[in-house]
């Protein structure tokens, strides 16, 4: 991978990080609003609100996970091992990194791990 490629993926990762952090901020707000509305809303809409809260919490967890993956990827750029599969040390295809710059595994390891 060339220095230019690395720079490109680092930029992509930093953009993803900023984007996920922005969404995470909004979701954190949604995850904490049920308490406030409890007296004002009826039973059904309270259940709706709780459902919304559970969904917000689930997506907050997903976003925290994604942020971690992005941080790890940025760390791998610093360490000079970005683009290498964590499992087998082979190069991850650039086309695969293009789709998800935070991906940690080459396609064959990813398929093995999914099974
Ligand atoms: Zn691999």
The value of Rg in angstroms is: 19 Å
CATH architecture: Up-down Bundle
CATH class: Mainly Alpha
- The low-confidence runs, each spanning 5 or more residues with pLDDT under 50, are none
How many DSSP-defined strands?
0
Give the proportion of residues in helices: over 70%
The outline comes out as elongated
The whole-number mean of residue pLDDT values reads: 88
Secondary-structure element sequence?
HHHHH
* The CATH topology: Four Helix Bundle (Hemerythrin (Met), subunit A)
Number of helices: 5
Q: Any ligands, ions or cofactors bound here, and which?
A: zinc ion
> Which class best fits the helix and strand makeup?
mainly alpha
The CATH homologous superfamily: DksA, coiled-coil domain
Please indicate the count of domains: 1
* Range of strand content: under 5%
Features:
mainly alpha; 5 helices; 73% helix; binds zinc ion
What does this structure look like?
- Helices cover 73% and strands 0% of the residues.
- With 115 residues, it is mainly α.
- The protein has a single domain (3-114), classed as Four Helix Bundle (Hemerythrin (Met), subunit A).
- Helix 1 (3-31) packs antiparallel against helix 3.
- Bound molecules: zinc ion (ZN).
State the gist of this model.
This protein has 115 residues and is mainly α. The protein has helices at residues 3-31, 34-37, 43-79, 94-99, 107-114. The mean pLDDT is 88.
Task: Produce the secondary structure layout.
Elements lengths: L2 H29 L2 H4 L5 H37 L14 H6 L7 H8 L1
Helix pairs in contact: 1-3
The site of zinc ion has 8 residues, from helix 5.
